[in-house]
Amino acid sequence: MDRKIFNVNAILLTFLIIFVVLAVLQRGTILIWSFSSKQYLIQDFIPQLMGAKIIADGRGNELYDLSVQEYYQKEVFENSALKFLLPFRNLPFGALVYFPFLLLDVKTGFLLFVLISVVVLGILAGIFLRVFSRDYWAFLIMSLGYAPVFLTLSLGQFSIVLLLIISGILYCVHSKRYFYAGMFSSLLLLKFNYLLLLPLFMTTLDISAIRKFLKGLVPSLLLLMLMNFMISGRALLGYPEFLMTTESEAYGTFSGHIFSSESLTGKFFGEGVGFYIKIPLYLAFLGVLYLLRNKADTLNLWMASIYMFLFLSPHIQIQDLSITLLPMLYLFKRRKESANLFALVLIYVTTGIFWGKTVGLNPLLLLAAASYFLLLSSKINKSAREGFI
Known about the structure:
Blueprint: H1 2-35, H2 45-56, H3 66-76, H4 92-95, H5 106-132, H6 136-145, H7 147-155, H8 159-174, H9 178-186, H10 197-203, H11 207-232, H12 239-246, H13 262-269, H14 274-292, H15 298-312, H16 325-333, H17 338-354, H18 362-377, H19 382-385
Helix pairs in contact: 1-6, 1-7, 1-17, 2-3, 5-6, 5-8, 8-9, 9-11, 14-15, 15-18, 17-18
């Protein structure tokens, strides 16, 4: 029996290694090609720079004016080749990340941003080496071959930074530094829908830990919100309407690229119905976490929460799945169990295959992954609690 399991694991691991190596070679080639072409720069890096430039020019109160953003895209950044506006959709605080790159030309800034993102990945791998796991090179190479990470790097997004923040939160919670976990959590305001993760994480904690967590979170969050208001003033009041207006293909949001549940509900029930389905599902999942918090392995619940958050949150695209490197490492650490290794291979491979080719079906991958971790969480044994952190 053990030999049969070993053979299955050996086959799965060999397949994963081959796939990862080929993925790294292919995506590395594409990324290098993109360095000599401005075509990639018009995707997501320009809108972030655009937001930073509007604020730097003292026009933060016009940040969510579509005509102002269109002017900056076409005239200031000479990006007139685009036939539609790719808007800056984050809170003003998110634009601050891109301020240093305004000192450089667009291409140099993009190259530097990619380099910094790779360095952050290396730092993450180092943290995992000391804290989470000893599979340093495996994690680093898997990261570079992972489709969400590749698109994050090639499009100039900051999902790698969000992965670093979430890793810090989970580490602080596990080491019982709940106050610092709360402070870290406020940084998720970089992409404010990520705050939906926090109730899921906090549900697994006891009352005393939640109080300490909130003592760190609430003041930090209020400080950052004050910063947002100081930057953009009353323009921030129109932010919700701006998001609803720009959540369409006219502004670059294509349904085939959406991984969250709205692409699934939109396909079968029509646009706008998904919101009314998400709320009861989110509350139901909170209830499940609450019921399992004292009976199941907490780490499994956290991994399930990451996938369920991505499933239920609005505007989740493939680059946002960079944060699933945490669950990937969790499964890789437990690769001796054939089911875990099979789940890792299946999720890793299909994440790249699904993107842009299976309109409406992308969310099923997230839902299946969340369900798998919930099933794992019911296996309470000593080995399930050891080795990850």
